[in-house]
Amino acid sequence: xxxxxxxxxxxxxxxxxxxxxxxxxxxxxxxxxxxxxxxxxxxxxxxxxxxxxxxxxxxxxxxxxxxxxxxxxxxxxxxxxx
Length: 82
Description:
- By secondary structure, the protein is mainly beta.
- It has strands at about 5-10, 20-30, 35-45, 55-60, 70-75.
- The N and C termini lie far apart (about 35 Å).
């Protein structure tokens, strides 16, 4: 089974080798037909401590690294804000 890949924004990098990534998903409400936004935070392993707050990153499912970390940082997405 392929591993899931999500894209989100780093909201915290205070922990060593760990970043907290907020992922937003949008879907249409089944009854109201209105677009709804839902956000969820994931703890991800960042071996090099490369990601900083505000970076747009991609995370991939991996083996459990700790009690909360089930994701690993794979790459930083292209930053369009220059």
